[in-house]
Design brief:
Layout: E1 2-13, E2 20-31, E3 35-39, H1 46-53, E4 61-66, E5 69-70, H2 76-86, E6 87-90, H3 102-112, H4 118-130, H5 146-158, E7 164-168, H6 176-193, E8 196-200, E9 212-217, E10 220-227
Parallel strand pairs: 3-8, 3-9, 6-7, 7-8
Antiparallel strand pairs: 1-2, 1-4, 4-5, 9-10
Length: 229
């Protein structure tokens, strides 16, 4: 079952002769339980594409359909609410709240959505434990390593059981061993929980953990490098 579909998506910046085409007529779909890597050189449009899939940017034209709804047609308020329910996002910089514990950071979105209860609190604990952080629940981000912080960010992206989970360069600040651990665990959780996952990365060593690797060049999809479907 398709969880996310982008249809002829275009993103322009500027007007007239100064127009920059960041994404040019991109179409792709991701099924439930499928993990896709989006790769390409700097300036290829992959991060802009991810931001549109996350509902953080509106496309200039085209459709982005998640849970049967075109998020590009939504107003800002509705899109923000939709993100909180259907989309999980792990940022490159983690964006953890420094004065909250690992557990509190994961619970934050549930609290903001009014869905923090005994069951969801236990789910947050179980998820962090699954990610190897069972003994770090009360630690603040400053007391965690880079790999541990990234795992907290992954737990936060998954905790509200979204349709789609997106990650922007989740291994950028990690050494090789931690990078493999983080992406392998991310992939396992996407498959186990039957989510649709997309990861933007420069690191082709992570390709062994994903189902497809799609390359972008100059704002377009160039080719599919790996396809294990």
């Amino acid at each position: 079952m398709i969880a996310l579909e982008a249809i002829n998506v275009v993103k322009h910046y500027g007007t007239g002769a100064s127009t920059i085409v960041a994404v040019n007529d991109v179409s792709l779909s991701v099924r439930r339980g499928e993990f896709v890597a989006l790769v390409g050189p700097s300036g290829s449009g992959k991060t802009t594409m991810l931001a549109m899939l996350a509902g953080l940017l509106k496309p200039t034209s085209g459709q982005i359909v998640i849970a049967g709804q075109d998020i590009g047609r939504m107003g800002e308020g509705k899109r923000t609410k939709f993100r909180g329910q259907y989309i999980g996002f792990a940022f490159q910089s983690n964006n953890l709240v420094p004065y909250l514990s690992a557990l509190e950071n994961v619970e934050l979105l549930l609290r903001l959505n009014g869905k923090l209860n005994r069951q969801s609190k236990q789910r947050a604990r179980d998820l962090l434990t699954r990610l190897g952080l069972g003994e770090r629940l009360k630690n603040r981000p400053g007391q965690l390593s880079g790999g541990q912080q990234q795992r907290v960010a992954i737990a936060r992206a998954l905790i509200h059981e979204p349709e789609v989970v997106l990650a922007d360069e989740p291994t950028a600040s990690l050494d090789t061993e931690r990078a493999h651990q983080v992406v392998q665990t991310f992939a396992e959780l996407i498959h186990e929980q039957n989510r649709a996952g997309i990861m933007v990365t420069h690191d082709l060593r992570m390709a062994k953990y994903v189902d497809r690797v799609i390359q972008m060049v100059d704002g377009r999809i160039s080719r599919t490098i790996v396809d294990r479907r």
